[in-house]
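FW: tagging you since you asked about this chain on Friday. Here's the raw sequence from the shared folder, copied in full. Didn't touch anything.
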Amino acid sequence: MTNPDQTPEPRQTDRWLEPGKTNLQVIYVLYLASFVIGITGIVGIVLAHLNSGKSEAWLESHYTWTIRTFWLGLLGALVSGLLMIVMIGMLLMPLVALWVIIRTIVGLQKLGRNEAIANPKSWLL
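HL: got it, structure written out here
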């Protein structure tokens, strides 16, 4: 039987759910995995939005980068899908995928070196 005067210890969450470097690594990996398992990108963007605004400035640059990578990549994929009608989308879709992959790898590399993203609101790299 438990002592009624004892309060339970607060539940400790996993580090990968909390804002920070580990969480960002998970988001980047989820983005890359979305090319194989489509739904993981959605999980990544949810984590990014939930944790944005809750950490140090250099990490915030990565949250901005990941959020913009997802939404701009989705926009590019939708435009490419529409342009499939005139066959231009066949060329554009792989370029959009390459753009997302490169931005994700650049983000992972900078995160591994504890560097901020220089211009997180950039459309390019």
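FW: The longest helix spans residues 57-83.
HL: agreed, and The chain is about 60% helix and 0% strand.
FW: great, closing this out.
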